[in-house]
Amino acid sequence: MQFSNSNTVSDILLLGFQNLQSYRISFFLLLLIIYCVTVCANLLIILVVSSSRSLHSPMYFFLTQLSFIDIVLSTTIVPNMLLIVLYEGIFVSFIGCLMQYYFSLASESLECLLLAVMSYDRYQAICHPLHYISVMTLTFCVKAVLLCWVMMFAGILALSITMSYLWFCGPNVIDHFFCDLDPILELSCSDTFFMKTEDMILIIPFVLCPFTVIIISYIYIIITILKIPSVTGRQKTFSTCSSHLVVVSLLYGSLIFIYLFPNTQNTKKSFSIFYAVITPLLNPMIYSLSNRDIKQEFKKLKSKMLPALLMR
Fold first, then answer.
1. Which of 42, 23, 22, 21 is nearest to 31 (CA)?
2. What is the overall mean pLDDT for the chain?
3. Cα–Cα distance measured from residue 187 to residue 169, given in angstroms and rounded to the nearest whole number
């Protein structure tokens, strides 16, 4: 089936939220504050870890990668979201819509893969502490992160190649605040079965396999913790992985509700807000508020930087 250029979608209207007339400005200001705090908090974690030698360990190296991913995810979605709330919907180019989808998918895939690597790090630290230094070397950590990025690029490339064979002839309206796969495919006049099948297949390496690694790691971690004789020892050991466990629960909890349960469009929007806006805000707070080392290094950094700023 052939379609003329005049019938091809070039601009897309993102409707966003249609029932916020009375709260539009308040919601806009709230989103703006959340976005600024999210970017600043994640940048602060990257700065603190990078400037402190005592935090140059695999766990904090992976944490800086997680903070970077959260910044990318939030920046991919929230600025457009602010415009949608302010103007009650905006037009974006079709290419821009696809780019937003690819960047959000890349962030989501990287976060799942990275959390699996971080769970393996906690498994080695708790279950095999004597071999931890020899296993979790800097070379291994860099290779693990690079592998995550290579897998992400391969998945995005496969989807983009398949997407390039689809025709998009309208309508040009998406009832969402960002460009996700299902709303984009609803604009296509081609058969999207293969595209949807490919997307489901990619869930295996990017969601199910990382989740399996996390579950297996924590089974061994829990078994090891239960063997510790003292209650204080068990609590102290568990505290080293509690932040990671909370972040995993937030991520996979939101993904399960968005993709696995049949929800209304408004419910999907709500859980998408939680994943794309709230989770990048909570992640640095979860790690920093419960981590004594990061708080101590932050105080040291503040004591170094504050006099220099006052002298200016």
1. 23
2. 86
3. 7
